[in-house]
Amino acid sequence: MAVKNLFINLPIATKLLLVSGVPVLAVLILSLVTYKSVETFSLDEDHLNDVYHVQSASSEFMRLVVDLETGFRGYVLTQQPQ
User: Fold this and answer.
1) Partner of 24 at 20 to 30 A CA spacing, among 39, 57, 62, 82?
2) Average pLDDT, consecutive stretches of 10 residues, N- to C-terminus, the chain (82 residues)
3) 8 Å CB contact between 35 and 29
4) What per-residue confidence (pLDDT) applies to 68?
5) CA gap 8, 12 in Å, rounded
6) pTM above 0.85, yes or no
7) Which residues contact 18 (CB under 8 A, 6 or more apart)?
8) What is d(CA 15, CA 6) in angstroms, rounded to the nearest whole number?
9) In degrees, to the nearest 5, what angle opens at C-alpha 25 toward C-alphas 19 and 29?
10) Measured in whole angstroms, how far is the alpha carbon of residue 34 from the centre of its chain?
């Protein structure tokens, strides 16, 4: 009850300032949360791109190792360099 009486006793200019300040504060808070979410999303996207490049390089390396093993096996069996 004391809070209600406090608001009633305020001058009209203060009431208008409080009433208009609450939505502005809410918009600022939501803007900050949205900014942080976008920033986190961007960092996650960068990390995913790095992982993709590492996986691509690993796949290429494995393909080269298999080719090397196949070539070596062929050389051991035939004793021909080609």
Assistant:
1) 39
2) 77 90 96 98 96 97 96 88 72
3) no
4) 95
5) 9
6) no
7) 10
8) 11
9) 155
10) 12
Token representation of residue 32: 């900050």
Q: How far is CA 60 from CA 20, 31, 50, 73, in A?
A: 61, 44, 15, 20
**The tokens of 71 are what?**
């070539």
Q: Residue 1: what pLDDT?
A: 61
Look at phi and psi of residue 79 and say left if phi exceeds 0, alpha if psi is from -120 to 50, else beta: left
Tell me which amino acid residue 34 is. Answer: T
The DSSP line for the chain is -HHHHHHHTS-HHHHHHHHHHHHHHHHHHHHHHHHHHHHHHHHHHHHHHHHHHHHHHHHHHHHHHHHHHHHHHHHHHH----
Structure tokens at 68: 């090397």
